[in-house]
User: What shape does this take?
Amino acid sequence: MIDFEEELKKFHPSPEVEDAESAIRALDVTDMVDLIVQLEEKNRTATTRV
Assistant: This one.
């Protein structure tokens, strides 16, 4: 049987993955949620002007 606690003690994160995560977080990438929020804000301001 596998002892998960013992296996977790052996785990070491890959430096390449950590570097990739850091690079991705450093980018200011607009995702779909950001786009939807921006569209809603534009829609809200457009309807309040009328």
